[in-house]
Amino acid sequence: MSQVGIDVGGTFTDAVLLTEGVITKKTKVPTQENLLLTLLNALDQLDVAGKELEHITVSTTLVTNGILQRRLPEGKVYLLPGSGMKMESFAWPIPYEVLSGEIDYRGREVVQPNDLEWYRAAQQWKKERESNLVTIVGKFSHRNKIHEERLATVFRQADPQAHIALGHDWGQANFYRRSLTAYLNLTSTELFTQFASGLEQAVAQRGIRAPIMVLKADGGVLPLSRIRPVETVYSGPAASVLGAMAQTDASSFVVVDIGGTTTDLGIVLSNSPLLSSRGAQIGPFATLVRSLAVRSVPVGGDSAVIRQGKELSLARYRLGPAFCLGGPVPTPTDAMCYLGLVPFGDRQKAGAALASLMQPQELAQTAQHILQMVAERIAQEIESLEKEWREEPAYKIWGVLHPHEALQLHVWASGGCASGLKTYLEERLHTKVRIGRYPEVSNAIGAALARPTFSCTLHLDTVLRRFRIEETGEQGIWEGSKRPHLEVDTFLEQVALRLAAAQGIDLRDAQKEEFDFFPIVQEFKTVGQIVRGALHVPPGVRGRIS
Amino acid sequence: MKNTGILFFPAFDWSLGETHPEREERLLYTQEQLFEEGILDLPQIKQFAPGMAPLTKALLAQAVFPSPEHHDLDAHLIAAGSTLILGDALAKGQIQNGFALVRPPGHHAGATVLGNRGFCTLNNEAILVNHLRAEYGYQRIAIVDTDVHHGDGTQDIFYHDPNVLFISLHQDGRTLYPGSGFVEEKGGPNAWGMNVDIPLPPGTGDEGILYALEEWVLPRLQAFKPDIVINSAGQDNHFTDPLASMNVSARGYGRITERLKPDLAVLEGGYSIEDALPYVNLAILLALAGEDYSGVVEAKRPTRPEVPLSQIKPYIQELKREYDQVQANWLWRAEASLPGGYWAYIPRTIYYDTEGFQEMRYDRVRQCSHCGGTVYIESRRPPFHTRHALVRVPFAACPECRQAGYDLWEYLIGRMESVTFQDQPGNVVQFWHISKGVKVFGPSDPRP
User: Fold this and answer.
1) Which DSSP letter does residue A441 get?
2) C-alpha to C-alpha distance for A398 and A395, rounded to whole angstroms
3) Domain assignment of residue B396, given as a range
4) CA within 20 to 30 Å of A428's CA: A437, B232, B369, B389, which one?
């Protein structure tokens, strides 16, 4: 069977066709304004029309760009913050309205909503609304969704056409991030749905019946129709990490994907990419979207090199391709070309670019200096990423007694300029830098071979008899015992199996986290427990390139 | 807005017993509250990872008998180590203030440790204070203990130290554990006036405790001019606390923090796990970070009778008058077996409530007008006859007291079951045990 992987980058879109782990076709097309056309162009270049394919996996910047360029429609946001921190303590990138009602940390109702106030809010919205998009988020709604659902009913009564998103669908703690995540997902839905149906139609027209999968920020894949749009943000860096995993036998390493404008970094530890402890940040929006621990460094082969007095510096932007490839200004690529480190570019032009920065007799030195600067900037970010991983907070004695070991991680580099920076990175980081065989389509390989991720996190309060599933926002009644042990294990497995079946995911590789049991004591008697547990299928690849 | 460090270490896998107040659940709801509020997303708040303190750090403040290996110290060393991590960040200017939200607590653990008392084994603040003095050269440090229980352990450790001002505001010891902390306890002979105990009547609320703060604590702090202020931030003055009877609210704690402006706050007690801790911790953290805490409102309302301000004002004024009038009365003697000079002799007993035994203590401090004076503490746990000793050469010791300490250390070896020698200016602790000989704990010991 064959798979297709397509990675939409800022400048170029890469695509590969894999058959039994062998690259049978690869292509690179410029990324156009219209993403759908870009994807179809890449597909056509691969010449897969009418072919039997296992799947087509796409990593797209559609939603990321939609958010960053503020191209999404607006919707009203109603928040139920109750008491606690002031709303003004945070910078809210969107306007909101505050309504009454309060839930506490165990999901108990503390303040009942003011029904009249709710009714009036819905009526006013109906009168003045600009769209039918409504986001409703309550503090601690991930513990109890009652207020969110009741307020949604009030809005639906005002207008059955209301398109409403509720915060508890994102069942993790963090009211601020949950509000923004629910909002972004709702407002990006239409954009994504249009794109999805366009893509499905076009693929069908080409006689391809394979399912279309989308890469997520956490490195997993889901069918186009099942994905929550906001989860597709930042899948590019995830594709880099997976692409590296598909091309090496090593189990722990740092991934460096050197692009034209930016360099993406990630870490793989014991065959699993490191996940970020916080959700993705998309421009001014802090979200709960699970993502890999990746960094984007604004430096790449096409970064403009600027001279200020006697000093050279790297700009954080790109003005076009390298001078040696017909671009307007000197870049690190010119330095690599001049030193003969890359097999492309006009060396004379590269020399001229460097000469515009320094005296002609110092060209080689200047070129080396530029590459050292690039290596330095990348190395600093690698070090800070490693530091962040080592210094991740622990909340248990066990965690402090068993800290992350200091690993000497080698670097796996990809991207068109990877070979040009190899020795410079090695010198700076004192570690080996390896380069894959297909650095230019590494991301597309990652997309093609990404396997689905799965996560099911249970929070159970046996005193209040309620359970919650973080990933789906499901909340229900616990009918088991007050102090469950094996029972809770079976329960988690059953929930996970049900969710996995719905998503078509295989749980054979699932890893179970150790359960946390918190006895709840009232009046010096144990009356029940809070139990936390989880089951994961971590991100990874289905196989390796041979 | 202040750059505030937080070290949240709830020790979710540690308890003193399933239904003990000091159990896994204690900071669970605080975690829920802080994470749901998203307080770690505030740009000025930086979270730090916990770490374990080297044993040396603990031994520079406390002697652990019969020997450190005799006790399971892991959890306590992590709580102390985490406090040190925030202290380092402060000293290096990475943060402007910080909150060590850690378990287990420490302020009942004193200069000698025979076991757990008042839920404490190692004294997090004391270990921090001596670390800051040894590593960064801070000279004058103030500790303000706002836990409802008298901070008797911290008081014990610094009682003879003229460079550490200890102030404890607590519910009157005649009505609450540990039963000490009266105005007469003004400090040892060489540190007279460096200890201030303010016992408040049960029922004192926000206004009462703030009055004591404004009229007594803050002026005393101002006169002392400390390099650094540490707050033992116990939360059991809250109106829902099951072990105490005060009436302070979460916002009251916010106001205390705002007025006190501690450089570092360290969690102590507080056992209203559901009704107080999530709110009080949030209010303290917001106050430290310079954010508005006025929206932090508990789900429950106070039900206890509150002592009105009109009644508490004269009460506190009278206490302060009493404090000012207390006269020192020491028993001075020269002892043939001790190095030269006069030694104040202070015998006492300490009760260990967790395991229910008593420690007999014979404290001595050398009279000195130049420094804190050599401290010599003999400890015994009846019915056992074995004796243990602590010898301390204090920070900024004068040459005579330093020599006296060394002489005493050499003299005591072989005469006790174990001896701890704290050379604080040298940042070295030596420990001798009858069956193991001498072990040196130096500043260069790596962190485990």
Assistant:
1) G
2) 9
3) 332-441
4) A437
Q: Which domain CATH number covers B197?
A: 3.40.800.20
Angle at B349 between CA B346 and CA B351, to 5 degrees: 150
Domain match, B321 and B336 both? no
Same domain, B341 and B301: no
How many structural domains does chain B have? 2
Do A155 and A186 form a contact (C-beta atoms < 8 A)? no
Whether A491 and A534 have beta carbons less than 8 Å apart is answered as no
Same domain, B364 and B250: no
Q: What is the dihedral of CA A5, A8, A12, A14, to 10 degrees?
A: 0
**From the CB of residue A357, how many other CB atoms can be counted at a distance below 10 Å?**
20
Neighbours of B282 (CB within 10 A): 25
pLDDT of residue A61: 87
ipTM rounded to 2 decimals = 0.93
Q: Over pLDDT 90: what percentage of chain B?
A: 96
pLDDT digits (tens, 9 = 90+) for B131-144: 999 999 999 999 99
The tens digit of pLDDT for each residue in A196-224 reads: 999 999 999 999 999 999 999 999 999 99
CB distance B122 to B150 below 8 Å:
no
| Run of H or E residues at A546 | none
pLDDT of A510 above 50: yes
B395 shares its domain with B301: no
Are the beta carbons of A237 and A411 closer than 8 angstroms? no
* Residues B34 and B162 occupy one common structural domain: yes
Give yes or no for A21 touching B (CB within 8 A): no
Task: Give the C-alpha separation, A49 to A45, whole Å.
Answer: 10
Contact A225, A211 (CB under 8 A): no
Domain co-membership, B121 together with B98: yes
Is some CB atom of chain B closer than 8 A to the CB atom of A512?
A: no
* Domain assignment present for B391: yes
Q: Which residues 149-208 of A are in CB contact (within 8 Å) with B? A: 173-177
> Which amino acid is located at B58 in the chain?
A
| Nearest Cβ partner for B292 among A89, A177, A524 | A89
User: B312 and B428: one domain?
Assistant: no
Instruction: Write the DSSP symbol of residue B215.
Output: I
Please tell me whether the peptide bond between B383 and the residue prior to it is cis, using omega within 30 degrees of 0.
yes
Last residue of a domain, one of B309, B325, B341: B325
The partner residues of B264 in beta bridges, in order of sequence, read B98, B230
Give the pLDDT of residue A308.
Answer: 86
Choosing from B306, B325, B344, the residue where a domain stops is B325
- Phi, psi for B301 (deg, rounded to 5): -105, 155
Tell me if A423 sits within 8 A of A446, measured CB to CB: no
Alpha helix stretches (DSSP H) within A402-516: 418-429, 442-449, 486-503
Q: Which of the 8 DSSP states describes residue A364?
A: H
- Reported as a single tens digit per residue, the pLDDT across A340-370 is 998 889 999 999 999 998 877 789 999 999 9
- Give the whole-angstrom CA distance, residue B382 versus residue B352: 12
Asked whether the CA dihedral B261, B264, B269, B275 is positive or negative, the reply is positive
Mean pLDDT of A508-535: 93
Nearest to A174 among B25, B36, B294 (CB): B36
- Integer distance in angstroms from the first to the last C-alpha of chain A? 15
* Cβ–Cβ contact A513 with B under 8 A: no
> What residues are paired with A536 via a beta bridge?
A455, A511
Residues in B touching A393 (Cβ below 8 Å):
8, 47-50
A163-166 and A133-138: which strand pairing?
Answer: parallel
Same structural domain, B37 and B84: yes
pTM, to two decimals: 0.94
User: Is there a catalytic annotation at residue B108?
Assistant: yes
Query: Which of A406-442 are b and which e, b meaning 16 or more Cβ less than 10 Å from the residue's Cβ?
Result: eeebbbbbbbbbbbbbbebbeebbeeebbbbebbbbb
pLDDT (0 to 100) of residue A485: 85
A483 touches B at CB < 8 Å: no
